[in-house]
Amino acid sequence: MILAGIDEAGYGPLLGPLVVGCSAFQLPDQPSTDIPCLWTMLRRAVSKKRVADGSKLHVNDSKVVYSPSAGLKELEKSVLAIAATLHGPCDNLTSFITQTAPHALADIAGYSWYQPSTGEKFPLEQAAISIGIPANALAVEMRKAQVAPVYLAARITCERQLNHMFNATRNKANSLFSISAIHLDHLLRHFGHQNLLIVCDRQGGRLHYGSLMRMMFDEWALTVIKESDDRSDYRLSRDGHSVRIIFTEKAEEKCLAVATAAMLSKYLREALMRRFNAFWITHVPMVAPTAGYYTDGMRFLRDIEPKRQEMGIGDGELIRCR
Which residues of 251-285 are buried (b: 16+ CB within 10 A; e: fewer)? Predict the structure, then answer.
């Protein structure tokens, strides 16, 4: 079977990109009808909890693995090690974006604040050997457990495109779902015949997804299994094949594939925000960096306002309208 997960980073901020990640793993068919536990299958190499000696990769909700005070080090180690089992190693951030989000390269090139600074290092905080060793250990455990990564990708949507989507839909949650649906479409087309289970974190707090999926995947027959406050469960059927899609609260804690998608999304967003801050510090040397969330984002905009006006950078290029 194929177990896939989808989650985002950057839905709420005022500044920076929205990133929607997706991961998928092939594993032996499971007797249970609920979400298989890859943490158990790969327990010698990964852990939901931080392991003091670093002998296991920490894979969980990105808010658990990463914090601004602790930095990117632990999140980076887990994300790059998992990515290496599918894509192999890479030696710079642009190459990593090419591996995981190639569609975004042309768009990113249109923003001066997302260009690599002179001397940008990669990995950002880890040593390369600190990625290679756990990546090899994870690959060994995957082979033992008959688990294989088959998809690891993200959709990076930058400010101009986000504003265009928000203005077109007048609905932020619908914009998020339309980005997530690109991953859903890929999964259905490539793995829809392989006993596919897709687990997604709630999309902007939405409880009901049936009408959206009927509209976007009209070639599949949709069955609503359950719609409740904490979980919405659906089945798509076509040509004798069945795909189950679950939207649930705290999905990152229930499914390793969702946690991986969340961590990939967070890593790519944080990496691009480092470029963002490096650009503005070059032009406004005394400005304090920002993560882009509303209150601090407004402070940041006040601090850079004179230089932004001088550079002719309009609101729609830099600031999200929703």
Answer: bbebbbbbbbbbbbbbbbbbbbbbbbbbbbeeebe
Under 8 Å CB-to-CB from 232, ≥6 apart: which residues?
207, 208, 209, 226, 246, 247, 248
Measure Cα distances from 252 to 124, 166, 174, 227 in Å. Answer: 24, 26, 21, 19
Which CATH number belongs to the domain containing residue 156 in this structure? 3.30.420
Q: Is residue 46 part of a domain?
A: yes
Q: Is residue 204 part of a domain?
A: no
The answer to whether position 289 is within a domain reads: no
Identify whether 146 is part of a domain: yes
For 137-160, b/e burial (b = at least 16 CB within 10 A) is bbbebbeebebebbbbbbbbbbbe
Maximum CA extent, the chain: 63
Cα–Cα distance between 74 and 59 in angstroms, integer? 9
- CA-based nearest residue to 209, from 173, 185, 239: 173
pTM assigned to the model: 0.96
Count: domains in the chain: 1
Instruction: Please give the backbone phi and psi of residue 246, each rounded to the nearest 5 degrees, phi first.
Output: -120, 130
Cite the DSSP H helix spans in 12-147: 38-41, 62-65, 73-87, 93-100, 105-108, 128-145
Residue by residue, pLDDT tens for the chain (322 residues) are: 999 999 999 999 999 999 999 999 999 998 877 899 999 999 999 999 999 888 999 999 999 999 888 889 999 999 999 999 999 999 999 999 999 999 999 999 999 999 998 889 999 999 888 899 999 999 999 999 999 999 999 999 999 999 999 999 888 888 999 999 999 999 999 999 999 999 999 876 778 898 889 999 999 999 999 998 889 999 999 999 999 999 999 999 999 999 999 999 999 999 999 999 999 999 999 999 999 999 999 999 999 999 999 999 999 999 999 8
Q: Which domain covers residue 158, as residue numbers?
A: 2-189+253-274
Give CA angle at 269 (103, 52), nearest 5°.
125
